[in-house]
Automatic annotation (TrEMBL):
Gene3D superfamilies: c-terminal domain of poly(a) binding protein. InterPro entries: UCP029876. It holds the Pfam family DUF1048. This is DUF1048 domain-containing protein. It comes from Nonomuraea insulae.
Amino acid sequence: MDAESNEPKRGLLQYLEVVTGPLADKKRWWQYKARVKNLPENYRTAVEALERYLMHFGPGDGAEAASMFEDLADLFERSAADGTPIREIFGEDPVEFVEAFMQNYSAGSYIRRERERFTNAIARAAGEDTGQEDRTV
């Protein structure tokens, strides 16, 4: 009887994961958001700005994105604890900082995938062997 009572619940969870993605990734996201909320205001403002940028240009896959945001929270928690000034974290060019940060999480970036696909297509058109299969489909 217990198995039957758990079956509809498990089916609903499976359906939700198909629609929204793995629930474990959602849990990681909310844990990250709680960590950011506990940062001092200026660090929180910087992280939220980074978050907006990363949502557009960072990894799209759940596990890779979750890892990236957890690392971001680690960085800013340590920086806040050490009293590291915001400008010292970012340097003079915040875009250069975030682009370098994203290089560690390249697997999910749709921009990087499209750049590679474009570069490989041009190489193939030029008669060069890229060693990459065409994934345009």
